[in-house]
């Protein structure tokens, strides 16, 4: 019985595939016919588009009866004898067009009937409202601007296969209006961030992506070879060390929004190349960065979404209320019931980790163990906007120590929805202390930690020139876009995410 079913499925598949191939063949034949008759759409170099679809709908009262020119992709077509309807989709939305033989001419109407869904067309005509009340364009001319030789997914079912959606984003954008809306919002988020920082006196700068020393974060870099110099280089993992050089140079408030590259795995929140924003402000500390972060998030949400209350996966988060501020020690005490102030040695911390089933490595110290407890017991609870402050020195190689307790640093991570959204410091500006931190990182590298930093002599030289007290922060722009657009995965907010090759 199952063998017969398989044969039927195979026969059905075989009958479906030639249909698609036949449809593609017909389209190529139509193109060849157009070209043979001197009407090749691909020789057209421009088209005068006067309006977009939504603009016509929004301004119908003043445009009714006037001639407009639109351009876009034909998404549907209904031929009814001497008159037809088609729907054209452009950047702003879609609009119906009424195409009548008596209005466009007999020959032009024959050509229109041969056009396919997916073709790019230009339509000139008068704006009117149909008997059913739909704002439309009464076409005087229809021009084929580009012939589609492929078949779009069937409109009713749309494009739902996520793998194809990510690989063929161009089709995804055509078929799924909400996807286009997500990326329009992403663009607005970036614009709003820039406007806010510019208004606060920050200067946008650009720093190298190709570096000899990839520092500023705990991550394994991608490596490449520069043929002209016969030297190995790395793709940057952070923006930090170059931006701090600019603070040394007297550029008191700087920021950069750009791609960084980390040789790590793929999951719903990680892509090997992603957009990071880092900013540095002289003469402030991590408390100043908290105030900036709170105001930035609140401003961007209000500007892009029109509200400071956002909903992600059904959970409401309120950016309008003051953000919670809690130390890492107090957070672990609150959610795990363990007070690390009472744990004095690394041995005690490791014994506690064993008791609680927390995995650690031999090289880990008390501060590392505290961080592991935080990840295990606390992060998932940090749904509302929360600043987790005062991280242990072991996990903060570029951060100022707390003067009253040098085991901890003036650092915070910003959390929402259980995710780390930003990481900020009172920046370390003591070159002697920084050299010692680099030495410890080099030891970790020698012990097999591929994410440890290496000593950056030029950066140390910059610190010896003298860097003022400085607050700095790094924002994950992609995660911010995920939250503000209610997107389930990082791939949903990256136009072209990294994908496995199809043959794998």
- Spatial strand sequence of the major β-sheet: 6-10-11-20-19-18-15-14
Task: Based on Cα principal axes, name the global outline.
Answer: elongated
What is the average of the pLDDT values? 93
Radius of gyration: 29 Å
Alpha carbon gap, first and last residue: 33 Å
Largest sheet: 8 strands, mixed
Number of helices: 16
| Unreliable parts | 5-16
> Looking at CATH, which topology of the largest domain would you report?
BirA Bifunctional Protein, domain 2
Helix-strand category:
alpha+beta
Q: Any idea what the CATH architecture of the largest domain is?
A: 2-Layer Sandwich
Q: In the residues, how many domains can be counted?
A: 2
Count of β-strands: 20
Please write the CATH class name of the largest domain.
Alpha Beta
Structure explained in plain terms:
It is a single chain. Helix content is 38%, strand content 25%. By secondary structure, the protein is of the alpha+beta class. It has two domains: 1-152, Nucleic acid-binding proteins (OB fold (Dihydrolipoamide Acetyltransferase, E2P)); 175-323 and 384-492, Bira Bifunctional Protein, Domain 2 (BirA Bifunctional Protein, domain 2), CATH 3.30.930.10. An eight-stranded mixed sheet has the order 6-10-11-20-19-18-15-14, sandwiched between helices. Strands 1-2-3-5-4 form a five-stranded mixed barrel. This is Lysine--tRNA ligase. Mg(2+) 2 binds at residue 420. Residues 1-23 are annotated as: Disordered.
């Amino acid at each position: 019985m199952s063998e017969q079913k398989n044969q039927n499925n195979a026969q059905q598949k075989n009958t479906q595939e030639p249909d698609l191939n036949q449809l593609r063949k017909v389209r190529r034949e139509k193109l060849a016919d157009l070209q043979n008759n001197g009407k090749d759409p691909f020789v057209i170099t421009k088209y005068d588009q006067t309006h977009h679809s939504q603009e016509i709908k929004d301004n119908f009262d003043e445009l009714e009866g006037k001639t407009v020119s639109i351009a876009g992709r034909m998404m549907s077509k209904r031929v009814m004898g001497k008159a037809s309807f088609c729907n054209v989709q452009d950047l702003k939305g879609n609009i119906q067009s009424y195409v009548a033989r008596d209005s466009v001419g007999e020959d032009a109407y024959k050509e229109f009937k041969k056009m396919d869904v997916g073709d790019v067309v230009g339509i000139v005509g008068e704006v009117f409202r149909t008997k059913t009340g739909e704002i439309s364009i009464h076409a005087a001319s229809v021009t084929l601007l580009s012939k589609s030789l492929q078949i779009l997914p069937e409109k009713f079912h749309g494009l739902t296969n996520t793998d194809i959606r990510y690989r063929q984003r161009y089709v995804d954008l055509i078929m799924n209006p909400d996807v286009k809306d997500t990326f329009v919002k992403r663009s607005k988020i970036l614009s709003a961030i820039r406007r806010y920082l510019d208004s606060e006196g920050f200067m946008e700068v650009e720093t190298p992506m190709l570096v000899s020393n990839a520092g500023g974060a705990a991550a394994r870099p991608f490596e490449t070879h520069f043929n002209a110099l016969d030297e190995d280089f790395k793709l940057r993992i952070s923006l930090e060390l170059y931006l701090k050089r600019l603070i040394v140079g007297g550029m008191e408030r700087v920021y950069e929004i750009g791609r960084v590259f980390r040789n790590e795995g793929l999951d719903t929140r990680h892509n090997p190349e992603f957009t990071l924003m880092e900013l540095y402000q002289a003469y402030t500390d991590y408390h100043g960065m908290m105030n900036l972060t709170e105001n930035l998030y609140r401003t961007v949400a209000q500007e892009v979404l029109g509200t400071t209350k956002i909903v992600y996966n059904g959970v409401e988060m309120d950016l309008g209320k003051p953000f919670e501020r809690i130390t890492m020690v107090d957070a672990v005490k609150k959610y795990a019931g363990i007070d690390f102030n009472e744990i004095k040695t690394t041995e005690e911390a490791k014994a506690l980790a064993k008791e609680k089933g927390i995995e650690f490595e031999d090289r880990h110290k008390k501060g590392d163990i505290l961080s592991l407890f935080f990840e295990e017991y606390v992060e998932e609870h940090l749904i509302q906007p929360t600043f987790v402050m005062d991280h242990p020195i072991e996990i903060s190689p570029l951060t100022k120590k707390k003067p009253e307790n040098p085991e901890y640093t003036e650092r915070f991570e910003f959390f929402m929805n259980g995710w780390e959204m930003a990481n900020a410091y009172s920046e370390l500006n003591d070159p002697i202390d920084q050299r010692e931190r680099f030495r410890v990182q080099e030891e970790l590298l020698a012990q097999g930690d591929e994410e440890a930093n290496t000593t950056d002599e030029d950066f140390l030289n910059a610190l010896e020139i003298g860097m003022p007290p400085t607050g700095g922060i790094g924002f994950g722009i992609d995660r911010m876009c995920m939250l503000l657009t209610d997107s389930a995965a990082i791939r949903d907010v990256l136009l072209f995410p990294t994908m496995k090759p199809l043959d794998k």
